[in-house]
Amino acid sequence: MPVSSHPLPRWLSPWMQGQKIHLWGAADLRGFSTPDSTRGEGYPFALSYAIPMNPLIMAGIRNGPNQDYADEYVRVNDIINDLAERIAIEIKRRGFRAQSLAASERTDTVNLQGDFPHKTAATRSGLGWIGRNCQLVTRTHGPWIRLGTVFTDMTILCGPPVERSYCGRCTICIDACPAGALKGNAWYPGLPREDLLDVHACDSWKRKHYFQYLRGHTCGICSAVCPRGLKMLKQPTLSGRMPL
Fold first, then answer.
1. Residue-wise pLDDT tens digits, 28-37
2. pLDDT tens, 69-81?
3. 32 in the Ramachandran plot: left (φ > 0), alpha (ψ -120 to 50) or beta?
4. 111 CB contacts (<8 Å, ≥6 apart)?
5. What is the DSSP string of 58-84?
6. Using CB atoms within 10 A as the burial measure, which of 19, 46, 67, 215 is most buried?
């Protein structure tokens, strides 16, 4: 699919900067099945953005999650959902359709997935690739981020999408997964999730061993051990919490 050549709306970049959203882009989703709007139509585009997690908290869960991580997970998800609603309002004010996608919401309890993969919008936006840990990996923050998505029919400059993995031969996340749920394959667009992750093995392990943290909804080990995330600890300005 060709990358959209429409320019960025003049208001968008200053607005995103004003919200301290530094890692964002737009995805061309024509050809993908997106959630329907109230008009019964899907969306051709989406805005994708990433909010960083506290790097010290992420580094502290390499052997398993803790309450600080559970609290940070909720905090960042709340920020993402608030931003998504406000982005959608701004787009609608300008006469376009927009619909936010909730962070970490499972609407399919059989296949353990939501209405649309945030990671698909993110790779199509050029934010990063999907690592062997089945998480989005960015060049600046590794996988130590969480994602937000807002669908729209507003024409916008998109991509270019990331269409290959840059994990190289690294398998640290695979070796660290206590559930043995990671398959070890390198991602490429269209690769089924099942070829990266046994989602039921992952979910079962979390519910059995980490139920005290958000009812077993989180783990984070495979993200915490990623060398691209651990580079965040080398930032000279690190003071315990990354600015948003």
1. 999 999 998 7
2. 999 999 999 999 9
3. beta
4. 199
5. HHTTTT---HHHHHHHHHHHHHHHHHH
6. 46
